[in-house]
Design a protein that fits this description.
The complex is a heterodimer.
Chain A lengths: L14 E4 L3 H13 L7 E5 L7 E7 L2 E8 L2 H7 L5 E4 L6 H10 L5 E4 L6 H14 L2 E3 L6 E3 L3 E2 L7 H6 L8 E5 L5 H11 L3 E6 L10 H10 L5 E7 L4 H10 L7 E6 L26 H11 L10 H14 L20 H7 L7 E2 L6 E2 L2 E2 H6 L4 H10 L5 H14 L7 H11 L4 H9 L9 H14 L4 H10 L19 H13 L4 H16 L7 H16 L4 H10 L1 H24 L18 H5 L3 H5 L1
Chain B lengths: L2 E4 L1 H15 L11 E3 L5 H7 L2 H4 L2 E5 L13 E4 L1 H11 L3 E4 L2 E4 L3 E5 L7 E8 L2 E7 L14 E6 L18 H20 L2 E12 L2 E4 L2 E6 L3 H8 L14 H12 L3 E6 L6 E6 L1 H13 L8 E6 L4 H15 L8 E7 L7 H21 L2 E6 L5 H14 L4 E4 L7 H11 L3
Parallel strand pairs in B: 15-17, 17-18, 18-19
Antiparallel strand pairs in B: 1-13, 2-7, 3-4, 3-7, 5-6, 8-9, 8-11, 9-10, 11-12, 11-13, 14-16
The chains are: A alpha/beta, B alpha+beta.
Amino acid sequence: MTKPDYVLFDKDTTAIIFGNQQAAVQRMLHFGYLAGREKPSVAAIVNPSGGRKGLMKVFYGKDEILLPMYNKLGAAVKNHPDADVIINFASFRSAYDVSVEALNYPTIKTVAIIAEGIPERQTRQLIALRKKLGKWIIGPATVGGFVAGGFKIGNAGGALSNLLMSKLYRPGSVGFVSKSGGMLNEMANMIALNSDGVYEGIAIGGDKYPGSTLVEHLQRYEANPEIKMMVVLGEVGGDDEYEIVDAIKDGRLKKPLVAWVTGTCAKVFPSEVQFGHAGAMARGEAETADAKNVALKEAGAYVPNSYNDFDKLIRTVYEELKVKGIIEDKEEVTPREIPVDYDPRTMRRTTNIISTISDDRGDELLYAGIPISEVIRDRYSVGDVISLLWFKKRLPQYVTEFLELALMITADHGPCVSGAHNAIVTAMAGKDITASVAAGVLTIGPRFGGAIDGAAKYFKDALGRGLTPRQFVDEMKAKNINIPGIGHRVKSVHNPDMRVNLLEEWAFANLPKHKLLDFALEVEKITTAKKNNLIFNVDGCVGIVFVDIMHSTGIYTEDEIDEIIDSGALNGLFVLGRTIGMIGHFLDQKRLHSGLYRHPWDEVLYTLPSETEVLEYSDTGKKR
Amino acid sequence: MAQRGIREYDAKRILAKHMKSLSKGTFKYRGRVVLVTPEASIEAAAKRKHWVKTEKLTVKPDQLFGKRGKHGLLLVNATYEEAKSWLEEKMNSTVEVGKVLGKLTHFLVQPYVELDKEYYLAFAGHQEGDYIHFSAEGGVDIEANWDMVTNVNVPIDAKIEDVDLSLILDSVSNDDRAAFQDLITALFRFYRRLQFGFLEFNPFTHKNGEFFPVDTVARLDDTAHFLCHEDWKDVEFPAPFGRELRPEEQYIEDLDEKSGSSLKLTVLNPKGRVWTMVAGGGASVIYADTVVDLGFGDELATYGEYSGNPTTEETYDYAKTLFDLMTREKVEGCKVFIIGGGIANFTDVAMTFDGIIQALDDYAEQIKEHDIKIFIRRGGPNYKAGLAKIREAGKRLDLDMEVHGPDMHMTKVVSIALKNLEDGR
């Protein structure tokens, strides 16, 4: 359903937050929960300086939830096409660039800019851009705004106590707009004390050139049938308020409007005083607060004699509308309750570790949400358990079958490979099972067993970029990188590795598509033509078939597959599989009561430098 | 924080560096200007710049006010010796400009230029672009001759090359038009690239590819400092004429610069009886408005604000500065001190109030001695704890204090406070 143009935010609006603003995100979620939103108002967070993707842990009512965190705005926008608001917390240095990028995404309708101190020329360019694209900017230099009972921008609305006090959890009948962000809560409270409350409140920010103007928001309020009266808080300097005067005069604004322009004190100040806001300085008589208040009153707005009477005038206008029946009594809504101990400032201190794979607190142990009783009674396989604890999903049977196949195939490769050798030597030194197995596991890395990740990564990247097998080989050669997953110390074309053949057989039999495996086999043809032992090895085959499997499930996006590879999950298969063999070797040595191992001298080439060479630069050497 | 005036000297100094490249070699500006101050004499300048002694000179104050000729503050066609003695006479003298009294401390010295024609050129930003105003009838009477000024708008996303400048050059002879186009184009690029908000040359002329600006008025957007600091070099943003900062104002300004939050203080009337310490840029104006609207503008001692979640210590320093000022002058009757603010978005009220309480502890005796009555109204995160603490401090220190929360209208506390002064009227 498309929303009317006058709606920027409602109960369904979701936003992307640019900046690692946990407290602001938490406040948005509190607000949404209070207001009875179905889903959190924050779709994702972009943490540009974090440099890595991740999750933000926040509370939604009583529940802890995790919000996705990205390091690039583009990725967040792409993955969350329903979010049409970006709340830009970037600093004044980068706020412009981020806003330009944000405005240019077709799914984004509104950008709120929080930073204060953005150069005026940059803001003017942003305004031209947003007008060209037909979009909205709220800010810069603002806290934002809110639609009561619907959505709020960042920190607008303030603390939980204020949301409750000003009844921002349910809509009232008053549309409010101000320049000052600091006055937003104050005004919402004042309006709540003197009417049925705010429907929508926006602070456009105190800069000389606001991204959207007072009159633009008033025109939205005019068009919104839920809003029955409007309140404006203007400011000395600029001519925004005269646009309101014109709009009242030519009938674009018809609803009752209560207005006050601040800065009447400027007349007693000795020389030009720049107020707290950049736009608040009168240049010429027309820009003074007094002149604007007079003009608004003459045009037909309700204007008090002083801010001191602003509240009373709002009440009077509201009461009149009630008498006329334009505003009807609404039933009071009870906000959902938020447990008080979920305070955003203490939240980060309460927990330091996030666990999303298992939970031992309840009656029963959970593996990724599945009770252990179900795991056992429903006869989950070892592959199923791995898929629960590693990938947080029960994957289809052919996938878990492959996981088990990989474990079986990598379980051992004789006593001479570095892992088993180390485990054996350690066991022979009389150390226990943990030390012996650890000594073996520690040899796993890029040269031994650890090429699974590397193979998956490089082959996938090459295929993804549309390289031919030949181009890939040439490129790796040019970069002087050995292709991970290619080459074996002992095996060769003439002495093929049965394990690889078995994996390939399995893939051909079980996978409808195996593009990366096909690509790898073409690469192998090229490399083996150069040298006999540059064959496709078992590490490479496990990694590459696993990528084909992930594609075949249709569960994962390219980004997610890359993330799984980057996380080291594929090497994990080798670590886990080979641990079986290393435990075997340890037990074997124990059974044999083997004594301490000492490497024979004749298997070491001893070649030491001469004494003169060694001492050449030492003090003794110089004396000589 | 906004557009701010800079010295004519700085504007011309920066222009001299860029004129040649921005005009693609069609124009030069020699930038022969010297700034004379109590610390930098014209003698010293003459040693560095040959022309100061050899050329006839123009000398005028460079302190962000105009109409210097009308105020008798303009020396033209003067020899070095004449300029020197004129400067000696004017330096550090107090003059009245408009209604403002101020001390003359900065003078611009430049070669005197005989103008056969006085042109006017100004660039002024507005939301959709930048206006170029041009006239062949410039000079001191430009305002009287404003109907002779021709205007063209350069949209914000347009290039100056794409704008038809001939539209404003009707008053210029055909032979001279191309030169004016090059000149205006170059100066506009300068204005835009160096982030000016306003730039005016009046009068000026040009001869053989050389630009001669006589008077220049310029405002820079100081928020663009991070983009332009290399081009601006050490540009200065002087306080408006007659507004030299008091030490206390300077202290708060320094505090503000070091802090991530906002701390502002302007002393209006140190003998005033109405003192305010208001949180928030918007609310601070409204409190001052209300004091003025209720007829006590002449008693308003300061304008200022603290906002953006300042630390306890920053708030303490700010409050202490106010108490220090407040307890210097003895007046008839009592004084009122309004600690005000709206409902904060994210400033922690209890934490900032801790700072105010520390200052109350330091100054309790003086506060009583000066019969200062304190009126408080505030809301926002943690306001209940903050209000309770300060109420307790008021009792403990035996101060005359009233404390209100957000259930009371924001400025009502002003009218309550001012009632204490009415009998003194």
